[in-house]
Design brief:
This protein has two domains: about 260 residues, no CATH class; about 45 residues, Endo-n-acetylneuraminidase fold (2-Layer Sandwich). It is α+β, with helices and mostly antiparallel strands. It is about 35% helix and about 20% strand. β1 and β2 form a beta hairpin. It has a three-stranded mixed beta sheet. It has a three-stranded antiparallel beta sheet with strand order 6-8-7. The N and C termini lie far apart (about 45 Å). It comes from Gopherus evgoodei. InterPro entries: Wnt (IPR005817), Wnt4 (IPR009142), Wnt_C (IPR043158), Wnt_CS (IPR018161). This is Protein Wnt. Belongs to the Wnt family.
């Protein structure tokens, strides 16, 4: 495969490209094939070459991120889908909005999650995962470090394109912060001990929660994200809250630089699909309701046939047999 341009490319587009590949095991027969992967920065190519077996976990992490993003926003005006084919997130991902903040956080978390899960299961665990590790500040000391390894891998792989642009860029500072916020979602479970579950004593351990839990936490952080702007403090550029009324944000919070568009109307230039043709809930007053989702344009109502299982009976032993019931339902779509 020919050498690709190594100009810094948004890592999200790279992850989306990997997510759409049928399998990387067939593509990456050896480390030299890493140079043919679309959009990788130079250091990402080197990581791929050193740990080529980990790239299928990167692909799986990207798939998790896309699936979770589309689940969390399925009833919003922006539903994590755009016009650009492979570019699931599209230009929305590079506009400095709170949507971009969520995308970076969920993608970074997805890679850390998938690599950790694969390592914990021992799936095709090669010696290179433990012996050729060269991430700053990480030393391997056994399987208890699976989570630390997943986070270290995500930091090295996902953050690299932003760092290669230079952290003096406001957008790079924003993306790096949100990448880390995604990795900081608490991956700890606890069990209470004591009379009637009084929790006098708690036993806690690091564990991988379902990724849906990670998505739920990041969606809450999306709702409470802080708008920031760059400020020079000595020789450093920092991101500070745009309004003095905003509370200082923490390393766990999401931040964004510019206000989001309303996502109402189709705008190919901005990668916005619009809400025309989307199904809405006529009785809801939330974001999925026809008034809000259709942006006041109104909606059309049609009847559609729905087939459901009904009259189910248990038969000894051991099966359940159901009939198929057909009935008409009203479907509402935005004009």
């Amino acid at each position: 495969m020919g050498e690709l341009s190594r100009s810094p490319c948004p890592v999200l587009l790279t992850l989306q490209y990997l997510a759409k590949q049928p399998s990387l095991q067939g593509t990456l027969q050896d480390s030299s094939a890493c140079e043919g992967l679309k959009g990788l920065a130079e250091e990402q190519v080197r990581i791929c070459q050193r740990q080529v077996e980990a790239m299928d976990s990167v692909k799986h992490g990207a798939e998790l991120a896309i699936e979770e993003c589309q689940h969390q926003f399925h009833n919003r005006r922006w539903n994590c889908s755009t016009l650009q084919g492979l570019q699931v997130f599209g230009k929305v991902a590079i506009q400095g909005t709170r949507e971009s903040a969520f995308i970076h956080a969920i993608s970074s978390a997805g890679v850390a999650f998938a690599v950790t899960r694969a390592c914990s299961r021992g799936d095709s665990l090669p010696a290179s995962w433990t012996l050729s590790l060269s991430f700053p500040g990480f030393q391997w000391s056994g399987c208890s470090d699976n989570l630390s390894y997943g986070i270290a891998f995500s930091q090295a792989f996902v953050d690299n394109p932003e760092r290669s642009r230079g952290v003096s860029s406001s957008r790079a500072l924003m993306n790096l912060h949100n990448n880390e916020a995604g990795r900081k979602v608490k991956l700890v479970e606890c069990k209470c001990h004591g009379v009637s579950g009084s929790c006098e004593v708690r036993t806690c351990w690091k564990a991988m929660p379902p990724f849906r839990k990670v998505g739920n936490v990041l969606k809450e952080k999306f709702e409470r994200a802080t708008e920031v702007h760059p400020k020079r403090v000595g020789s450093r550029k920092l991101l500070v809250p745009k309004s003095s009324r905003f509370k200082p944000y923490t390393a766990h919070d999401l931040v964004y630089l510019v206000a989001s568009p309303d996502f109402c109307d189709r705008d190919p230039h901005s990668g916005v699909f619009g809400t025309s043709g989307r199904q809405c809930n006529r009785t809801s007053h939330a974001m999925d309701g026809c008034e809000l989702l259709c942006c006041g344009r109104g909606f059309r109502t049609a009847q559609a046939e729905r087939v459901e299982r009904c009259s189910c009976k248990f038969h000894w032993c051991c099966s359940v047999k159901c009939k198929q019931c057909h009935h008409l339902v009203e479907v509402h779509t935005c004009r």
